[in-house]
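Example 3.2
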Amino acid sequence: MQGYDEAVVKCFLKNQTQLFPEPVADSYEEAEAFLEECMAVVTNSKKEVWEYFDEECVDMEGADEDEILEAAEVFDVGDGRYLIVE
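Structure, written as tokens:
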């Protein structure tokens, strides 16, 4: 099980409506539990986001790095890391 630090959980809690039509968590604890339940992934760089999608066989044909980072399921934590929620 991957642990999620405060920056990651707060990022998801603040920006969750970029992926979902309405909030799925109303508190820090709910957000953390949701991330654990859906096995969200934290990457340490843009390159790792690309590698993650490649490993998961996500069709990225014709997409560039910026388009991948703008995907609804990719959250910019703000410190160089990215949260991927599927």
